[in-house]
Amino acid sequence: MCPRQATLAPPQLCSLMGLTSEKTTTKTNQERNSRVVKSREKSRHFSEKAQPPRVLLLYGTDGYRPSHEIKTFLESHRIPHRTTSLVKGQLLLGEKTNSSSYSQHLGEISILIIVSHFQASLVEPYLELCRARHLSLVWAVLPYPHSQTPKPHFSRLHASSVAPDAIVGMTLSPRYPFFYGRPGATGGGIPHGKNWTTFSLETSGDSHVTNPGSHVTNSGPLPVGDLNAANAWSNMGDGEPGTKNGTNGYRVLVEVRVKTGETDFTDVPVVLEDMGGRDGVRKIVMGAPVRFWLSHLMLLESVHQLSDGRLVREGRERMVMVDIDDIFLAPEGRRMRVDDVQAVLRAQAKLRQMVPGFTFNAGFVGGYYNSGALMEEKLGNQELVRNAEQLWWFDHTYKHHQPHSMSPRQLRTSMELNRQFAKDHGIPALVHHYAVSPHHSGVYPVHPPLYDSWRQIWNVSVTSTEEYPDLRPDHMRRGFKHRGISVLPRQTCRLFTHTFLYSHFPGGRNQLVSLAAGGEVFLTLLRTPVSIFMTHTPNYCCDRLALTLFPALFKFTSRWTQLQLSYPGPLAMADRYFSLYPEDTSPLWTSPCSNKRHREILPAWFNCSQLPQLLILGPQKSGTTALHTFLSLHPQVQTNRQSELHYEEVQFFSDDTLYQRGIQWYMEQFPYPPSPSVPPTNSSLPSSPPPPPTLLFEKSATYFVHPQAPQRAKAVLPQAQLVVILADPSHRAYSWYQHQRAHSDPTAVRFSFSEVIRASPSSPPHLSSLSHHCLTPGHYHQHISHWLEYYDHSQLLLIDGDELVERPAAVMDQLLEFLRLPFHPFQNILQYDSRKGFYCVVESNRRKKCLGKSKGRSYPPMTDEDQQWLSSYYAPHNAQLKELLTRLGRTPPRWLI
After folding, report:
1. Is 27 one of the annotated active-site residues of the chain?
2. Of 447, 486, 598, 638, which one is least surrounded by beta carbons within 10 A?
């Protein structure tokens, strides 16, 4: 353990190994872990769920909590994965490794990661699987308590627990072909508060354990290249052909120097690669504590090595930018003085030796220039302006007002004043097309006037925020593009406006350095190819905490890794980010109403009750328009305004162009719900009862089949109730074809229904497309299952399409019960019209109001041959639907029985 007080232990002792003090961080870590677990569920829709898993993460009895660290690693690097226990994993994959269920569940998995104690019986059942499917294995070994001294073995390897106070240093092998780690990197110090697992090898022909480590009798740090053990291990082959490049035996990645006496030490492997010469499975075994930074680096290295670089997108390049928010704005006593400004410029020059092009990025608030009573701080302001050409600058609004709290005109005025200030003082703020909003207001949740004003006044192309999709977990932050501006994820580094003295930082200077030397900030840099760190003016005055943190970060990164650090500027960083993650280009809007931080930066007029509570999903030509019309008759129900594009349908979640307009546009499609009346406080009259709550709903029949609609809807409307109409799929397909003919679709006019449904992938594209739109909406099991990946089945009502046609009042009673709305006499206001052939609404004047001529139109009946063909086509889909309904405890529609 590294003491908190700098007087008891020099900070270098902690910085070399990235130690954090457990006593000062245990509570903080527990609180953070709790937040992460809660936020991970919120951010589930941002995971790589749509992709087949490439890594299977398995944990043993004591490996559940450590496996979360590895899950975070996989999520950070966007590696599709699946997580389960070792016991459930065998059930999941099948009883036998060669069974068909393995192929069904493994998909494209190429690596297994196991988190468990060093126990052969836990891993051996998976070796046959690895051999059969040519999988590789990473084994994160959990240490036994130090009081236990077993030496369990596996594939001639033996494991021992080593207490952290016995470890005096570690070295990355100078001979291993690291991609991320730096060969020969070495350092001393106490590495972590938990036991480590070291490995030894049983020599061929002997039953005893030997340790081919080097014994040394000095207490100094390991010299680079002093890896006698690694030399010995590389020659410890099994006498069998190796699995890669003809290599046998083991390769050491990392050794630790362990104290064995007063003056004696031995170097033993703690991370090594088994080339698979004995069992045919290439594997990397790691004995460092899972939470220690070395394990994160070695996990990255392992996945890269075992997948030949295919699973990790980021490569070695890491772009870094450090923003200094609130320039000219800080409480008195926390602003930069002349010597602070000079210290920033000196540090910047030194940092450029490690990060080419590095320049601090200053966010200025022109309205506070030279404010305050302290002359030293006014001179500091002037020193910043005098050296303006040596820094990069960005707009932070004139008076630090939050954009969401201003009118569009006020917002433009604020930006124009700040721009004029920059012009008057020679600040080159227009060069880099970058800006940041105070408190991230208006960036996300998006405030359209902010984006428009940025483009018009500052020609902004790039901004950043920590709020998309949420502040926590930080490794799940994402970027997106909106209104011509690239939004990049912003990172925190534990430096806030109140941390300007070491005594104000929890744990003091040692703890600050440890964040950079293997701690949270280093891990952020390791896993983030484009890092924008947020700091504030007070972090550069007084004890200048930022000028301690970032030099330590870049030195540690250079010492232990081969990451290539650079600062090319915001535009290049945005290009790099979206070239790596093109899937982030389109945002996934989330509900600001369920996020406290987001609610705090919403405009005053934003009303969460203006979002719908019910979605009628479709499918098309199943009776959704009739259901929409009938439900709108209820006095406590309101629907969306008429759409110029799609008539009564909004189609926000299925139309990519409309979706890009954002949640504010979506809300504007609905009426503003009435607010409860509040009587005057001095009134003696009895108050009138508040109006009943209004349920808002929309019907967009395109939602049912759209691949992104469930994900998008869940993110904005997590509590919404859903309705799907299950019409006979054969009749629905025929109705859709006739609908297209009635609208003069050239393909439907040219080709018969028989030709359309029998079209093949080799048919002309327009014919295949029409066939697809006729047939695939009837794959009810597929589409319902997709929606149930995001919504609980209790939120879904399935309506029998035949029942809606024949007994609409009974269906409406069922719907009202589902929605928990009061009874409405639909049996009195829905009446069958023999001329139209369906039920119509009886208005107050006793006249019937029926749906338009496009509904219930007459057309020739389907031929028996086509009906028979469709019955055969839909048979397997209907069987799957029936199985799903049985599993959900739902009554199947009559046409399915």
Report:
1. no
2. 638
